[in-house]
């Protein structure tokens, strides 16, 4: 068996002083894959179908479970959408609060 040792002693520990293996160090350097796997997409589609079925049959407990699962699974898409439209959202948010403050100041 061949072991790979650290060339630099500073990389042997993390920022808290805990020893780090070479495999964990090399894994952290690899780029993370963005996107969904086949099973995750299938689970999202099945939960959407269950959500639509339960929406028409009015089972509120299962609807809450489906919505919670979809919110958890669709976080990467929501973050992508949020970062793409951050400036427009911030402009709307600031304008809304300025108009609301003016209305309250004038009519209060």
Question: Could you explain the architecture of this structure?
Answer:
The chain is 69% helix and 0% strand. It has helices at residues 22-29, 38-57, 60-73, 75-84, 86-107. The mean pLDDT is 76.
Helices and strands in order:
Elements: H1 22-29, H2 38-57, H3 60-73, H4 75-84, H5 86-107
**Secondary-structure content class:** mainly alpha
Task: Report the count of strand segments.
Answer: 0
What is the CA-CA span between the terminal residues?
78 Å
Strand portion, in percent?
under 5%
SSE sequence, one letter per element: HHHHH
The radius of gyration is 24 Å
Q: What is the mean pLDDT?
A: 76
Give unreliable regions as ranges: none
Helix segment count? 5
Cα shape = flat
Structural descriptors:
108 residues, mainly alpha, 69% helix, single chain, 5 helices
Summarize the structure in short.
With 108 residues, this protein is an all-alpha fold. The protein has helices at residues 22-29, 38-57, 60-73, 75-84, 86-107. It has 5 helices and no strands.
């Amino acid at each position: 068996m061949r072991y790979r040792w650290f060339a630099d002693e500073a990389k042997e520990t993390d920022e808290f002083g805990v020893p780090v293996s070479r495999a964990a160090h090399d894994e952290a350097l690899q780029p993370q894959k963005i996107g969904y796997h086949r099973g995750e997409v299938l689970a999202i589609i099945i939960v959407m179908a269950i959500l639509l079925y339960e929406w028409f049959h009015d089972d509120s407990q299962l609807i809450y479970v489906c919505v919670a699962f979809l919110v958890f699974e669709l976080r990467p898409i929501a973050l992508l959408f949020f970062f793409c439209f951050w400036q427009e959202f911030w402009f709307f948010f600031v304008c809304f609060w300025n108009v609301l403050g003016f209305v309250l100041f004038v009519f209060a």
